[in-house]
Structure formats: structure tokens, C-alpha cells
Amino acid sequence: MAAYVAQLRGQEGQVSSPEAQADIENLASALENATRPEAASSVYGAIGKLNSAC
């Protein structure tokens, strides 16, 4: 998971939109902090927001 989060953060710089960069960072943070099942809603929310931006 750490490698995937690092990859996401590396791709932030390739995106020109500040909103999309923030959405990628939100997803990376949600994944990084998802240590319990209760965190799934944060991950799903971040994915939904990123999906809407794309």
C-alpha cells in the first residue's frame, strides 16, 4: 500500500489542475490513514471525488 500511495503522490505533479492535485492527495491520505474498517468511508469518498473530477 505504501508503494501505491507514493505512486499517487508522485503523479500529483503531472496534473495541471490544483483541484485534481488536492483530490489525489486526499485519496493518498485516506489510503495511508485507513488502518481500520471504519476508514473505508473516507477512502470511498476520496475515490468518488477523484472520479467526479476526471
Overview of this protein structure:
- The chain is mainly α.
- Helix content is 76%, strand content 0%.
- α1 packs antiparallel against α2 and α2 (18-33) runs antiparallel to α3.
- It is flat and about 35 Å long.
What's the quick description here?
The protein is mostly helical and 54 residues long. The chain contains 3 helices and no strands.
Largest sheet: none
Based on secondary structure, the structural category is mainly alpha
Q: Overall 3D geometry? A: flat
Mean pLDDT: 90
Low-confidence stretches: none
Order of helices and strands: HHH
Q: What is the β-strand count? A: 0
DSSP helix count? Answer: 3
The end-to-end span amounts to: 23 Å
The share of residues in helices is over 70%
Strand content: under 5%
Cα Rg: 11 Å
Summarize the topology.
Elements: H1 2-12, H2 18-33, H3 40-53
Helix pairs in contact: 1-2, 2-3
Q: What distinguishing features does this structure have?
A:
single chain; 54 residues; mainly alpha; 3 helices; 76% helix; flat
